[in-house]
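CORE FACILITY INTAKE
Project code: CF-77B
Contact: R.S. (postdoc)
Sample description: multi-component assembly, two entities in total
Requested service: structural model of the whole complex
Turnaround: standard
Below are the sequence entries exactly as provided by the requester. Do not edit them.
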Amino acid sequence: MAMEKVWVLAEPGDSGPVPVALELLTQARSLASSVEAITWGTDAASVAGVAGEYGASRVYDVGDLGGELPGAPVAGAIASLVTANGAPDALLIPATYDGRDVAGRLSAKLDRPVLTNVTGLVADGDLKTQHLVFGGSHVLTARFTGEGPGIFVVRAKSFAAEPSGGGPAEVVAAPPPDAGSANAARILARHVEERSGPKLDEASVVVSGGRGLTAAENYALIEELANLLHGAPGASRAIVDAGWVPYSYQVGQTGKTVKPTVYVACGISGATQHLVGMKGSKNIVAINKDQDAPIFSVADLGIVGDVHKVLPALIDALKARG
Amino acid sequence: MQAMNVVVCVKQIPDPAAPASLDESTHTLDRTGKLILDDSDSYGVEMALQLADTEAGDEVVLVSMAPNGEVSGLRTALAMGAAKALLVSDPVLAGTDALGTAKVLAAAIRRVEPDLVIAATESTDGYTGTLPVQVAEILGLPSVTFAKSISIDGSNVKVERQTEAGYDEVESPMPVVVTVTAGVVEPRYPSFKGIMAAKSKPVETLTVADLGLDASEVGVSGSRQEIVDVSEAESRSGGEIVVDEGDGADRIVAFLEQIKVI
């Protein structure tokens, strides 16, 4: 049985919705006859243009939030929409910093559970969700048992984004109700850290480093190799926990899912925590001194060797090619 | 300023180094073995200890939930320096989902009258990552997630919140819920003195009924979601594994050429 209506949280990005929102709009189209989106910010028109192209007929615009964090006001606006218009069959939310805030707030507000880390959605009588567990070796299938709407937080790269060729979505204002003290935090300043090259979860080449690098300063080799391959640098949880690189670099279960053309794992043993975030890569190259390291079980090319020797040699070889 | 209560939400989890297993009938994670303090929470505990001025009477209070009376993970955090712990322990809690857990923790936290509530961004075993915000919503508090630093400025907190592009400087009045990611501070190792002192620090145990919650809101019955199947995922077939004889870099270059990346 197809569903009637699915809502997608179309978090605003640089121009139009963030990429994962387009993946969710695409998937929503195959699940329900009516797809609507919720967005916020100063440019609902461009979100509506792109969201329409990916199948949304309507975009609810929460409006410019100024310095407010999106969690409380956006969840409040969605709860008001549910009261006024009835609940959709499902609400799909991108697994982003702000998406998770909205999902958590909304879940408590509506007293509905939320299913997170969703990597697959199947309409099979009712809507079932798939989640990768145990480092991606198993797929767990779950479903809601209570009243809707089901709230689903979906990981990036779970679906391919494909435009439907639709015209711009209709923009309908959905101002947030007063959230009181829950909305008391304010953004005083935004800092953009200059980073050259593609974003980690959009790059076609990802070069990641782990504990095997032995010291934080050796991470520079990872950055240099990523740069030479026009890719993005990533990291295992171990070196993020150790404070070598920020959390936004982390690939894995807690962290980002990446599916590049090639993933180069340097000095990463391949804990299940890490594998679940990268085993969907088209090609995997691993360098590790331990031949029994689990990373080799998913590698297309595995080099059993010292990362301190192989990495500089690889960098030199690529430089020599010009 | 009055003495501050800093609550840290902590979770005791099965050792992630040990292979995980699911209960055959309920498909829920087997938590019957020994539980330890989730590594992710040690950063929150450390952050709280750094922010609390114990000489001014500030206290770091742990709040946790478990279906059994497990306290070994709490003792680790007490040994690091937390003053006391509140453990909601009740057999009816088995199978509780994130929202049910948030209801329980919120009710427990309310009793402490916190100025600041710190939690990890996500747990290592469940990693749903929504619980702290659910707690904030239930308590009607602001929340700032993904903090890489927290400082206290009078009755406000200032937080550097990580974003995709960098970070935002966020200010919020207290009380507030703040989540921290791993790696933002270096958790201290409990000292021998700390470990000895932890043995006599108070751990108050409460039941779901003590918190005035209905048993139907928690446990499997309250979770309103179920696991219908667990099956093996398609596995990747292994490739070519070679020992580096000085030609490792060349082999990688050849592979990258073959897949037309270079």
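Facility notes:
- Residues 205-321 of chain A form a domain with the Rossmann fold fold (CATH 3.40.50.1220).
- Chain A has a mean pLDDT of 94.
Invoice: internal transfer
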